[in-house]
């Protein structure tokens, strides 16, 4: 039998050659990469037999790629997926499966269970005749494609404040448009700071997590951190005290007043009783300090909460301090690091739905 004549790609221009070479270096799709190599080798004058031997593919495959490239150009390098076999489970049944998955098993007659596992959901679908057969992996894919995922239940603390919207808008306006006659400062307490091993995250060899001692005792008492966030600079100012009464809060306000003399202070704080103490209010009225209270159960509007989350994550999580002196030093080190890199605080929750609220939502979205 005579040997079939070899075929070659059409002559390539300089630009086409560079493009083919770039594809062979950067292509992520293995099919596109293999086809580009075939074209490049053929353009270099290598025969079909040599290319098939090097790439471990059939000669017919090499010939088909070369002919396709000569006819359609670079479009021939892209794989044309057929899409696989037709779905056995239609869209309507898939929507029904997702609806059942979002429903409590007890409502479907499976008493004694509050949530579905893939196995229980699969058995229920088969028992009810919703599907004739289905694997757990197919079920998982259906739920994923339908936007249904396995999530932890969260809580929702509804606010009872009738003035929620006006208070929220007042705080947002201070954040968005700081007054020319003063400075906006967010104040809150952080703690309690007790001595105990704290869980955290760290880079470790696989399956060798860092170990913490187990303890059921709390020695050393409790400390509290009173802190202020200056939005104009993004810096934190704090003090650590054994208690967090109105006396300690007022002392912090006096320190802030001394730091920025001649400026009116707009102090954003929550409804903790020491913040509303009569002597605190009286001193603020006499010293050009305006207390701006967040709505009830709306402390998340206080910008300093985000800084507390970062402090907890980077300075305290994963630690096991044996004394308050050691723990306080860790906090001080983080605050110094933070203040060196601080930037003015702008753009608070600009894309959040709270920006469009006209009334308080009755329940969690």
From TrEMBL:
Gene3D superfamilies: Ribonuclease H-like superfamily/Ribonuclease H (3.30.420.10). InterPro entries: Homeodomain-like_sf, RNaseH-like_sf, RNaseH_sf, Tc1-like_DDE_dom, Transpos_IS630-like. Pfam families: DDE_3, HTH_32. Residues 183-319 form the Tc1-like transposase DDE domain. This is IS630 family transposase.
């Amino acid at each position: 039998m005579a040997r079939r004549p070899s075929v070659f790609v059409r002559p390539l221009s300089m630009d086409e050659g560079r493009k083919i070479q770039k594809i062979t270096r950067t292509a992520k799709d293995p099919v596109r990469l293999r086809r580009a190599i075939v074209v490049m080798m053929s353009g270099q004058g290598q025969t079909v037999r040599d290319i098939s031997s090097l790439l471990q593919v059939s000669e017919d495959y090499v010939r088909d790629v070369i002919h396709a490239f000569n006819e359609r150009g670079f479009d021939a390098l892209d794989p044309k997926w057929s899409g696989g076999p037709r779905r056995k489970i239609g869209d309507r049944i898939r929507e029904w499966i997702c609806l059942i998955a979002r429903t409590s098993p007890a409502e479907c007659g499976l008493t004694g269970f509050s949530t579905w596992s893939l196995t229980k959901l699969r058995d229920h679908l088969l028992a009810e005749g919703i599907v004739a057969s289905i694997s757990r992996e197919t079920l998982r894919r259906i739920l994923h494609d339908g936007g249904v995922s396995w999530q932890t239940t969260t809580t929702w603390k509804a606010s009872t404040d009738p003035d929620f919207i006006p208070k929220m808008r007042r705080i947002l306006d201070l954040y968005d448009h700081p007054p020319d006659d003063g400075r906006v400062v967010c104040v809150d307490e952080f703690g309690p700071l007790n001595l105990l091993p704290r869980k955290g995250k760290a880079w470790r060899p696989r399956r060798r997590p860092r170990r913490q001692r187990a303890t059921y005792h709390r020695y050393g008492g409790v400390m509290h951190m009173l802190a202020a966030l200056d939005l104009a600079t993004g810096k934190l100012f704090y003090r650590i005290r054994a208690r967090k009464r109105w006396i300690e809060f007022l002392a912090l306000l006096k320190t802030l007043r001394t730091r920025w003399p001649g400026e009116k202070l707009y102090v954003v704080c929550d409804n903790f009783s020491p913040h509303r103490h009569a002597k605190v209010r009286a001193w603020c009225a006499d010293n050009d300090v305006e207390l701006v209270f967040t709505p009830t159960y709306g402390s998340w509007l206080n910008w300093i909460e985000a800084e507390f989350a970062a402090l907890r994550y980077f300075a305290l999580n994963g630690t096991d301090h044996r004394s308050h002196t050691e723990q306080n030093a860790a906090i001080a080190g983080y605050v110094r690091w933070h203040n060196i890199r601080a930037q003015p605080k702008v753009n608070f929750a600009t894309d959040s739905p709270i920006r469009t609220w006209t009334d308080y939502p009755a329940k969690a979205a």
